[in-house]
Amino acid sequence: MGCEHGVADHRCTRALLDAALAAGVARYLQQSIVMAYVDGGDDWLDESTPFVATPTAAVVAEMEGMVRAVDAGAMAWCILRGGSFVGPDTAQQALLQRLREGREVVPGDGSNYLAPVHVADMTAATALAIERAAAGAVYNVCDEPVRYGDYVDALASGIGAARPPRSPERPAPASCRADATAIRQQLGWMPAPPWLP
After folding, report:
1. What is the domain count for the chain?
2. What residues form DSSP beta bridges with 32?
3. pTM
4. Can you give the three-state secondary structure of 142-190, one letter per residue?
5. Are 170 and 107 in contact (CB under 8 A)?
6. Is residue 178 part of a domain?
7. CA triplet 62, 94, 146: central angle to 5 degrees?
8. Which residue in 37, 70, 35, 72 sits closest to 51, CA to CA?
9. Angle at the Cα of 25 from the Cα atoms of 24 and 30, rounded to 5 degrees
């Protein structure tokens, strides 16, 4: 799988769902990730895309399955599949530091896609989903996907660092060209902060 941020233990999801149902919560939002999708190469990946067969994706699938098993009429749930977080306090900060120090190496040729989402945009999507999402909706939440090599080159250029070398012998992460058309059209979500710091 490509760049991943942490996936909560599915037991936490079970506990949250049970508590929400017991308390009579009207709306429930579950954060998930687009990085669980199969490697799409250059193809666009919408919400119907299957998950890859890895242990991490299996946890994501189980987590989402718990939410989907809830009667949406009893509690209106929505799943937001976020992209790779960028912005303050994300893995992007460590990447920038490696670029400054000349320690970053791009695995493969860098042609795999990354689906970034700024943490502020993820917050905005969450607020919109609470207000407007239909019960049982599932949305990809990400900015325009970018090839990973172009992404790190742009970051390096922005801080005056050297373009990182490519390493063809290293396997490239899965390509995640996630399509966020649904949330843009249905909820009016639009990414605002750029993924460049």
Report:
1. 1
2. 81
3. 0.92
4. CCCCEEHHHHHHHHHHHCCCCCCCEECCCCCCCCCCECCHHHHHHHCCC
5. yes
6. yes
7. 65
8. 37
9. 140
CATH number at 69 reads: 3.40.50.720
Instruction: Single out the residue of 76, 81, 77 nearest to residue 180, CA to CA.
Output: 81
Average pLDDT, the chain: 94
| Range of the structural domain that residue 27 is part of | 12-187
Could you report the per-residue pLDDT of 161-184, keeping only the tens digit for each?
Answer: 999 999 999 999 999 999 999 999
The residue to which tokens 């939410």 are assigned: 67
Does any domain span residue 7?
A: no
Encode pLDDT of 57-98 as tens digits. 999 999 999 999 999 999 999 999 999 999 999 999 999 999
The type of residue at 13 is T
Exposed, middle or buried: residue 40 (CB in 10 Å: 0-12, 13-18, 19+)? buried
